[in-house]
Every structure is written in C-alpha cells, then in structure tokens.
Amino acid sequence: MLPESVQNLIDEFSRLPGIGPKTAARLVFYLLTKPENDLNLLGQAVLNLANNLVLCQSCFNIADSEICSICENEKRNHSLVMVVEEPLDVIALEKSFGFDGIYHVLGGVISPINGVGPENLRIDQLIKRIKKKDISEIILATNPNLEGEATAAYLKNKIKDVNDSITITRIARGLPIGGDLEYADKVTLKRSLEGRREY
C-alpha cells in the first residue's frame, strides 16, 4: 500500500538493532516532513560513515586515520592494554576518565551458538602486539556474560602461552551480570577498573 521508496526505507531502518517495523515507519514518516536539505545532510552523513572511517591498524578501534588518536597519544601508558569487545566499549570507558592505557578491540566474543570462534576475532593480532611491544598488563574487559567470560578465559590461556610474565587482570564485578559496557554509567565503569583483579 505504501510507495516503494517509503517501504524500502522502512525495511532498511527495521534492520537496525532495536528498531522494529513500527519505529521504522515512524522514522520514515518523520523524515517525510523534513525539508529536502535536511534529508540530503542525513544521507550524506550516512555515506560519509562508510567512506571516511577506517579501523586503527594498531588497536582496531574506529578512526579517521590509520592510527587512532588514543594509540597516537604519547601521554598514555602504552604498556597497559585493555581488551574490549567493540568500539562502543572504548567510548564508554573513555567517558569514565578512569583509564590511561591503550585498547585492543576484538570485534566480538567467542559464541559457538552464533558461529563465532576465536579465528573470527582479532585474537591473533593481540598476540602479535604482545610479542612486538613491551606490555606489562592486559586488562580483560569483555562483558560479564557467558560469552564474555568464555572469551576472557580463552584469552588468558592464549596470552600465558605466549608470555607468562604479563599480568592479566579482569575488570571487577561492578557491572551487572548480563550487562553491556556501553550502557554502564561512569562511576560503575571507574570502580570496575579500580577494583580489577588478577585473572
């Protein structure tokens, strides 16, 4: 019943996480009320997202150049590496102002039920970083759920096989079980970092 262009946009919005068909339809009909210039700006912003962003060659966080601003910053402690699941986790942790080291973004967690094994994550790249750089501590900051715990355990064993002198810590349980880093408040994140323990 809807024009094809409207239905196509509703279908595309519906594919986004947390957006159902009704919300997608509301967004599309809202956009129909906006001036053409606003629609062009939105469209250009979406296109620029794909065209202007790259992954940092060091930590695999999103960046607009080959090395992100965090890895480039000489004031940060480059011997302290926090391993996280996704770039959103980096953003959340940076907002806490409780961490002055650098990151390594895995790109997910081990989840056999979803067909994600260690080979699908950036674990080999982490091991290469450990071999090349003088790293004193690895903080495992995967989410405190079943997959995050399994990934942390796997990483601990893998890192110890390569270099058993590196201190491996796990963020403290300031975060709720089943929660995601990206949704935690600043104080909880900061306390999780301060209360980390050897893993």
UniProtKB/TrEMBL annotation:
Signal peptide region: none
GO molecular function per UniProt: DNA binding; zinc ion binding
GO biological process: DNA recombination; DNA repair
Residue intervals of every C4-type zinc finger in the record: 56-71
Keyword Magnesium annotated: no
Record keywords, A-Z: DNA damage, DNA recombination, DNA repair, Metal-binding, Zinc, Zinc-finger
Keyword match Cell membrane: no
Pfam families membership: RecR_C, RecR_HhH, RecR_ZnF, Toprim_4
Matches recorded under CDD domains: TOPRIM_recR
Chain segments annotated as coiled-coil in the UniProt record: none
InterPro entries, sorted: DNA_Rcmb_RecR, Rcmb_RecR, Rcmb_RecR_Znf, TOPRIM_dom, TOPRIM_RecR
Family: Belongs to the RecR family.
Name of the protein: Recombination protein RecR
Species this chain originates from: Candidatus Berkelbacteria bacterium CG10_big_fil_rev_8_21_14_0_10_43_13
